[in-house]
Amino acid sequence: MAQYRLHCFCQSGNSYKVALYLQCAGLEWEPVLVDFFNGQTRDPGWREAVNEMGEAPVLEDGATRLTQSGVILSYLVDQTGNFKSASEAERREVLRWVLFDNHKFTSYFATYRFMRAFMKQEPDPAVMAFLKGRFDSALKIVEQHLGKSKFVVGDTPTIADFSLAGYMFYPPEESGYDWPRTNPNLAAWLDRIRALPGWKGPYELLPGDRIEPLR
Fold it and tell me: How far is CA 155 from CA 80, 93, 197, in A?
């Protein structure tokens, strides 16, 4: 049995953040499929046994069980030293970007993509416009920053890169965003991440069936 078990599914960019870290760090891990689209995370038994918050990913490392991608990435870098910050000041900067990602970058984009591509009922146009506007504001910050920095913090990848990249490798038909066309700095950064040993895209790396966008 692999040391790390990751409860995850292929549409979850938050799961992909952790899976990609494990993969690029060369760590032994195995996926455990979370049947999100059939309601597994809403099942009281699953929540009691796996994650009371009803979310993926969940990482198991022996008796240790962790949730929330930022917490999991921080734990893994502390445990393994892979993609570790070069200094205490850099560690704080990495944390700053992880929190920005969780609060504004992934938060708005993941919700917008889910409602656009996977939510069965037609989304409210006003809600979609709000989410897109909020994400576009965060995207502008990241695009400008990556014009000055090879990776999110400095010249080598850290968990900040895995965090912000979590949803960026999904196909453009799911979100309507085409990074090479609209955001060249972000696209170049994604190419640098693709070049990391072990890199795989989310639908290759994570378990579950790919779902065609509904709209």
Answer: 20, 13, 16
